[in-house]
Amino acid sequence: MIKYFLVSIGFVSLFSCKEEHKKVLNLEYIKNNQSIYIQLKNNTDKDVLFLVPNSLEFGDKNYKSYSTRGSREDDYPINVYAVIESGQSSKIYQKKLDSIHDAYLTEIGNGGFIGDERPGDGHSVFYLKKMGKLKVKYQLTVKQSLPIYNYSSKFKQNYYPYDKILKGTFPEGEYLRRFSKLNFGKAKFIAQPVIEDSLYLNISQNDVTK
Questions:
Q1: What is the DSSP code string of 81-127?
Q2: What is the pTM assigned to this prediction?
Q3: Dihedral over Cα of 110, 112, 118, 121: its sign
Q4: I need a surface site. Which of 37, 58, 111, 126 has the fewest CB within 10 A?
């Protein structure tokens, strides 16, 4: 059985009194068997629009890596990640993001890769009204690489750093920046929610997804 626990972040020690009461978009984790939910609360007085990653990435404490999922999966004894359940995003704005993504790939000469994304690649768009709340569901996957042997470790969920990507020079950041600068009407674009807790999973070979 996968053991999990949340580590709460003490806001008082991280922020000044003024910043502590700042109205923001907050994110917390809910673990339910093989599913993980991120619950988002809009504590602002405006409708907000934001992105969430289509996969939640986990890093193994025994390896200096952001994620055990990617092009080097065979390098890790156990791969842990969670993929978003389809059909949850805002359809109108999701089409706009996907259109910008495809146009950008064509612009840089990579149009041939359109449609080749793996499940969990990319981002989903959500619209949340003022003072509202929603849950986004992900299905957890635990895979063990060959050769199979007894292994256990602690895995920390690492949320996608939208604030850094949008401000940086990462190739993927360009189409996300273009989307973030669109006119969303009365909604305000939020780059990064405030994460209220950190999610850790204690996993062994007995927890491999069947």
A1: EEEEPSS-S-HHHHHHHHHHHHHHHHHTT-GGGTT-PPTT-SEEEEE
A2: 0.86
A3: positive
A4: 111
Q: pLDDT tens across 101-143, in order? A: 999 999 988 888 888 888 899 999 999 999 999 999 999 999 9
Instruction: Name the burial class of residue 33, with classes exposed (0-12), middle (13-18) and buried (19+) by CB atoms within 10 angstroms of its CB.
Output: exposed
* Nearest CA among 151, 149, 146, 142 for reference residue 2: 142
d(CA 138, CA 71) in angstroms, rounded, equals 21
Q: What are 79-95's pLDDT values in tens digits?
A: 999 999 999 999 999 99
Closest C-alpha among 156, 170, 142, 153 to residue 83: 142
Please spell the DSSP secondary structure of 33-76, one letter per residue: TTEEEEEEEE-SSS-EEEEEESEEEEEETTS--S-SSSTTGGGS
What angle, 0 to 180 degrees and rounded to 10, lies between the N-to-C axes of helices 173-180 and 91-107? 130
